[in-house]
């Protein structure tokens, strides 16, 4: 038998703050209700804004099918608002899930080139004339391409996924997708195809119909279900892959579910709205400190925050004075890229320390 | 939940084309702390990963009690074997108590219920980490973080506990304290394996010592039988001070031996 040693008494001893007392400090109970209220407010605003500004009362009338504004509200602004909510939520959730999987706050669909790859997938389909705009071939091609891009980045970055490797791999993928898309444009046989392709490059929610909503919804739901199913595993993964596996987490299944969920959601979103970047990067970042950095409890608030951000951005493009409407994908990039730089700035020490 | 031996029989493992384990036989007995020592690159970590069920051996079997480890569902295995990887880090600034509560995941628990889970409180008390229960784990010192991660492994309350270098980041006082905790866990009936480099701690706290060198088990037995000057010279190339004291064995590496003098 070993000597009993000094430890026993050294490690006991009463502490003023017990583990139980700490339970009172759970953050973020108010977060989801607050985000829902914000989302409702911006959705209402989104139904009111446009070339003709409507009062809340007129919007209510229109939604109920009364009055002359019913067509404007129900057929033009409602699909646009619904798409902003669905796609914003999809992007926010996808970003939170990827950040959890890679244990890295710089991970996001757009950093991986997933939207660019999805756009390429859609462009290829349009270019070869395989599909008209409402065909499911478009989202399927976009999903396949974004699946491939996320998978390649994850495989290249490897399990440790240092910031530098991750960002470089994503840069390579989006450059490749961008170049291939440019090639498709320059080889385009006619001006109509060029117009169609340019449509994918500048994400927008303008002139969408309920058919677009119907097209994206099932994919968004499946993707969200896949991502949300892995919440517990993502949380355990905070300890690293080895420890997570020792706690019974199937890391391979986790990785497959996240990559598939992200590809399905982001791919379908790009298929109906083009590339809208950086919502997936920003949304989880805003909510994470408010939920105690728990990867599982980040998921739903990140989805809500994404929906709020995109709905708000889509309202903003309608009030920014310009000759033609600013594309919402351009706006999210203009806001998102400085944010991305800001995160890099804050983690500069870590980046500098990362092995080249 | 106590009283399950874990044994490996003729285990071999390859890593990137290199043979890292070769015909290793070892049993972790309930109620016993086994120190696994050996030079760098001897295969200690791989052996721990094989025993934890995280790596399938290229040959040989791993038995938990009388059952093949490979045949166990992941969750059952996770309840039976707690594994503390080497130099672990936590990706997010989670509160320390939530990190410890992750040890309850195989039992259906986790951070949501962790604050009221007695196993979490016990583990934090045992590792003297209650004082920073609410602090972000990423803001802790290396030693504090190591204790929180050990508490996470203890919170599983598994019959088998495997720790890969749990004292590497600790100051002397906490090295002794943590080894004492692990010895206590063994005395409660668990089978405990600890990879370590500190021969003095191995001599003082281990019931059994197993020495790995170049993927082979070269010696296993009581510290008195295994940590002999001859074996230490042979395996590590060091001359060690060696003294039987009334309260235990003192082994202290003293100077390297010249190459070829072994």
Automatic annotation (TrEMBL), chain A:
What GO CC annotations are associated with the protein?
Answer: plasma membrane
Q: What broad class describes the main subcellular location of this protein?
A: membrane
Places the protein is found: Cell membrane
CDD domains of this UniProt entry? TM_ABC_iron-siderophores_like
Residues that span the membrane, as ranges: 30-50, 82-102, 108-130, 137-157, 163-192, 213-234, 254-287, 299-320, 326-345
Keyword Cell membrane listed? The answer is yes
Q: Which keywords accompany this UniProt record?
A: Cell membrane, Membrane, Transmembrane, Transmembrane helix, Transport
Per the similarity annotation, which family is this? Belongs to the binding-protein-dependent transport system permease family. FecCD subfamily.
* Name of the protein: Iron complex transport system permease protein
UniProtKB/TrEMBL annotation, chain B:
Q: Which UniProt keywords apply?
A: ATP-binding, Nucleotide-binding, Translocase, Transport
Top-level taxon of the source organism: Bacteria
For this chain, one GO molecular function annotation is: ATP binding
A Pfam family assignment: ABC_tran
Q: PANTHER family per the record? A: HEMIN IMPORT ATP-BINDING PROTEIN HMUV
Q: Which organism is it from?
A: Chelatococcus composti
Report the protein name in the record: Iron complex transport system ATP-binding protein
Q: What InterPro entries does the annotation carry? A: AAA+_ATPase (IPR003593), ABC_transporter-like_ATP-bd (IPR003439), ABC_transporter-like_CS (IPR017871), P-loop_NTPase (IPR027417)
Give the matching CDD domains.
Answer: ABC_Iron-Siderophores_B12_Hemin
Which family does the similarity line name? Belongs to the ABC transporter superfamily.
